[in-house]
Amino acid sequence: MNSQKEESLVLFRCLLNNPVIPKDLEYIKNTNNYVILFYFSEILFTYLTERGSTSRQSGRQRQGEKGGAGLDSRGFPWAPGLPPRRSGGEGAPPDSWAPRDRRAWMPGSPSRGCTCARPTQPILACISMSGWPMPRPCTISCSCKTPTYGHEKKKKKEKEKEKKNKEEKGKDKKEEEKKEVMVIDPAGNMYYNWLFCITLPVMYNWTMVIARACFDELQSDYLEYWIIFDYLSDTVYLLDMFVRTRTGYLEQGLLVREEAKLIEKYKSNLQFKLDFLSVIPTDLLYFKLGWNYPEIRLNRLLRISRMFEFFQRTETRTNYPNIFRISNLVMYIVIIIHWNACVYFSISKAIGFGNDTWVYPDVNDPEFGRLARKYVYSLYWSTLTLTTIGETPPPVRDSEYVFVVVDFLIGVLIFATIVGNIGSMISNMNAARAEFQARIDAIKQYMHFRNVSKDMEKRVIKWFDYLWTNKKTVDEKEVLKYLPDKLRAEIAINVHLDTLKKVRIFADCEAGLLVELVLKLQPQVYSPGDYICKKGDIGREMYIIKEGKLAVVADDGITQFVVLSDGSYFGEISILNIKGSKAGNRRTANIKSIGYSDLFCLSKDDLMEALTEYPDAKTMLEEKGKQILMKDGLLDINIANAGSDPKDLEEKVTRMEGSVDLLQTRFARILAEYESMQQKLKQRLTKVERFLKPIIDTEFSALEGTGDESRPLDSTQD
Q1: What residues have CB less than 8 Å from 127, skipping those under 6 apart?
Q2: Looking at the structure, do residues 251 and 340 belong to the same domain, yes or no?
Q3: Hey, what's the torsion of the CAs at 60, 62, 63, 66, to 10 degrees?
Q4: Is 327 in the same domain as 445?
Q5: Residues in domain Cyclic nucleotide-binding (predicted)?
Q6: Which of 454, 458, 413, 417 has its CA nearest to residue 440?
Q7: How many separate domains does the chain show?
Q8: 118 and 150 Cβ atoms separated by less than 8 Å
Q9: pTM over the 0.90 mark
Q10: What's the domain range around 385?
């Protein structure tokens, strides 16, 4: 045992002098810690003991032959009796192996199964609680597949890399899901045009599949054409499914453009199931049943929702919705009659042609054997039955009676639908005319009641006729009141802004002010000979000519000085009420309408209301007005440059008085509401008192009764 411990000490000294010792062991070279020596000696002693005496003896013999301690591969001494370790053969120096954790980490240990001989070193990197140094496994990994500490680190790194790769792949997938594709706007023209394209094959299938199934000649004589049309319609059906996956939808007011969301939205919809059923290749049954069974394509009828969608969008887009509704209704009725005719011919074929008076006549008759006659006769019979406007041959068999009864019920529904829809459409078409006629009748009654002259009555009637003929009876405010303010402003800008910009004083104004003024323009229509304004009148409005001709005439009303046409304007200076104007706010000329004239009117109050939000624009307009008056010699410079105009002060005082009156009115209203509320509260309190008074009286009386009963008892006790 002593010799073995000595060998362990020699080995430890060799390890300390080994230049490949990691930096973690540098501090061992400068220490005389015998505890460390003993600890490592114990480790090595345990190892050598388990290795067996055979290996040690062979080592001693080789050392004895060489004459004592030998040198390792780098010229350092190594302990005698050390077992040789080398992967390629025997006689390896001690630096070719390293003890780790009492046999568990030794290269070649049976518990680990490691067969490599890579040189490694132990590391003393931690100290126990009691101050004893504790070894930790070497971080240098073994070259074999032994599950050492280094391999565990590698595995952890590999797992981390795999996690990162998975996260990156997940991010890539999410990015692909969020990838935006070219999306069709459901409110755009492209989508509407596609609806028209898909409606054609839907109409084809709804009309021709049933006809080909009931009329054999129609299927057999034109088989090549039907095959072409069938597969063209199937191709359009498949394209329609792709278009649905590229059709956007609104989510929180925004058009969704992500491919994954569009596909998921389509798949979660019932229409996807119907679309899928409509493209199932049932035509494969042709190979088993033959080409005379076109009814196997009835699943193509499930795409009818696209036709309804097209008709709905067309109704909202067309300028003649009533005519379209009538045409649409007629088309539905024709399709129902067509289907009923095909079913009638099919029932006749099942019963037997010519077997009774109700079924289709014998086809052997040349007159009734042609395909055209078969269809026309069936269509005629179906029309008479469903519309109930003619007599048909009476049924004979029970099945015929049942079919006729069902046809009569359908006919009643069709007749009621026709009458109701057409009646409502006609009333809607004549609603505007009826309302306009009611106005004329009311005016006529008023003029007759007030004994208005015949000439004036004729002028009024002519004015109404002009309005109706030129479609000027529509009240713009009434029509646009259902639109939001922004849309209403955009429509007004689109219609009137160019006209307003023609006015000189408004040419350089802010866009916001122009929008405010555009919304305040009022259309007016004047008859021939009507005066728009006369000299000396107070100017409260300015006018812009939209259409027509006006004349500036003398006081006699005949002599014309100037003729104003489309785009001209007048009265803009009077509504500004410029200080120093010699004319004041009075009209300086007579203006008369030559024919029927359409004008836009802007009142002074509306202009001032708009200018309160734009004080700079008000100053600019007044300066422009002064320049115009100076050119015409109608401006008193002294008054214009003087202080505030007394008229302005009067207007301000008037406005303040109006504001005070308004405040007084509101205060009086609030006071009246308060008094009424107080009165109601008093009434409620009175009701509560009346309700609680008998209850309180009863309670008090009960308490008094109990007190009276207790008194005699007390006296007796005394």
Answers
A1: 133, 134
A2: no
A3: 160
A4: yes
A5: 505-611
A6: 458
A7: 3
A8: no
A9: no
A10: 319-473
